């Protein structure tokens, strides 16, 4: 066995060691399959023209990922017939794995990545079928613990490493709720080489479900995370963004934050009125450059 192969096996062993030795105390799975289209609460208006990335040349669709208490449904996209691919975990907004997230996976696959987006809310409800954002927040998000998310992402990383992915080249990206989880996972898993957090919350209410926020974990981030934020985001104060910049600088790692002047929350979401073409396209270019720059 050559040194490169041996190194990959060592990283795969690290992934396997992250899997819980005993089943977690969780509910059964409510969501066992992914539907088509956009989440009910955020249907595109007639004025929106969401990006549609074709699946030609890709292996794309639903997969089942073994987790501690069963199988979790996920969307996977990768170049057809390829193996040893760099891996990107894609973490959804509060709306779950709907068409926008699936399309992001296909966009990454077109760039040569194995992208996998797990339905991390599967045990607690199906936000794609809820018409009211407050119902999603109270009925699903308030029940989804960070510790469980970290374990599920570990399982997805391990699965990807055994299903066409290169376990030694792992990245993560996420949007809104998923942006926060991107920061957390980069602090949790030392195998993460790069992450891109799109407008994820930096600070907030501490409780049993959300015991820490990115601001608390800045010094623990092992890989390099790029945070992409908008100065007009009404849900994430610029004071928090600036505090995170200072914490990252003090930690002395590679992570950094870029702010788009005048951009609102969810500026990358091309199916919503918040979409802003210039920062969205620039952010995507930065994402691809960041992953390559940091070994993914």
Structure described in brief:
The chain is α/β, with parallel strands linked by helices.
Mean pLDDT: 90
Radius of gyration: 18 Å
**Percentage beta strand:** 15-25%
Structural class: alpha/beta
Instruction: Indicate the low-confidence ranges by residue numbers.
Output: 1-26
What topology, given as strand order, has the largest sheet?
Answer: 1-2-4-3-5-6-7-8
Instruction: Give the tally of β-strands.
Output: 8
CATH superfamily: Alpha/Beta hydrolase fold, catalytic domain
User: How many alpha or pi helices?
Assistant: 8
What's the story with the biggest beta sheet? Answer: 8 strands, mixed
CATH class: Alpha Beta
CATH topology group: Rossmann fold
First-residue to last-residue Cα separation: 23 Å
- Reading the helices and strands in chain order gives HEEEHEHHEHEHEHEH
Gross morphology: globular
Going by CATH, the architecture would be 3-Layer(aba) Sandwich
Supply the number of structural domains: 1
Helix content: 25-40%
Describe the protein:
By secondary structure, this protein is α/β, with parallel strands linked by helices. It has a single domain (8-19, 28-38, 52-293), classed as 3-Layer(aba) Sandwich (Rossmann fold). It is built from eight helices and eight strands. The chain has helices spanning 3-18, 99-110, 133-139, 146-162, 177-188, 214-217, 238-251, 277-293, and strands at 58-67, 70-79, 85-91, 114-118, 165-175, 192-198, 224-230, 256-260. It has an eight-stranded mixed β-sheet, sandwiched between helices. Helix 4 (146-162) crosses helix 5 (177-188). The two termini are 23 Å apart. 48% of the residues are buried. Residues 1-26 have low confidence and may be disordered.
């Amino acid at each position: 066995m050559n040194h490169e192969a041996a190194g990959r096996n060592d990283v795969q062993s690290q992934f396997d060691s992250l899997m819980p030795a005993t089943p977690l105390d969780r509910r059964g799975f409510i969501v066992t399959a992914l539907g088509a289209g956009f989440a009910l609460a955020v249907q595109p208006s007639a004025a929106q023209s969401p990006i549609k990335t074709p699946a030609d040349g890709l292996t794309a669709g639903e997969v089942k990922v073994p987790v501690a208490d069963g199988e979790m449904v996920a969307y996977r996209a990768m170049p057809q017939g390829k193996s040893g691919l760099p891996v990107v975990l894609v973490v959804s907004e509060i709306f779950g794995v709907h068409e926008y997230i699936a399309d992001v996976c296909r966009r990454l696959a077109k760039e040569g990545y194995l992208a996998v987006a797990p339905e991390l809310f599967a045990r607690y409800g199906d936000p794609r079928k809820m018409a009211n954002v407050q119902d999603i927040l109270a009925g699903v998000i308030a029940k989804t613990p960070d510790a469980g998310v970290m374990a599920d992402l570990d399982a997805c990383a391990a699965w990807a490493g055994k299903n066409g992915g290169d376990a030694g080249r792992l990245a993560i990206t996420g949007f809104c709720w998923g942006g926060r989880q991107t920061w957390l996972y980069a602090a949790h898993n030392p195998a993460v080489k790069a992450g891109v957090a799109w407008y994820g919350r930096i600070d907030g209410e501490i409780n049993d479900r959300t015991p820490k926020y990115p601001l608390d974990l800045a010094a623990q981030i092992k890989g390099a995370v790029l945070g992409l934020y908008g100065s007009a985001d009404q849900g994430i104060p610029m004071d928090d963004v600036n505090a995170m910049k200072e914490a990252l600088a003090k930690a002395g790692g590679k992570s950094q934050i870029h702010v788009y002047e005048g951009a609102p929350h969810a500026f990358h979401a091309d199916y919503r009125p918040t979409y802003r073409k210039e920062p969205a396209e620039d952010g995507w270019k930065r994402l691809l450059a960041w992953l390559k720059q940091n070994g993914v």
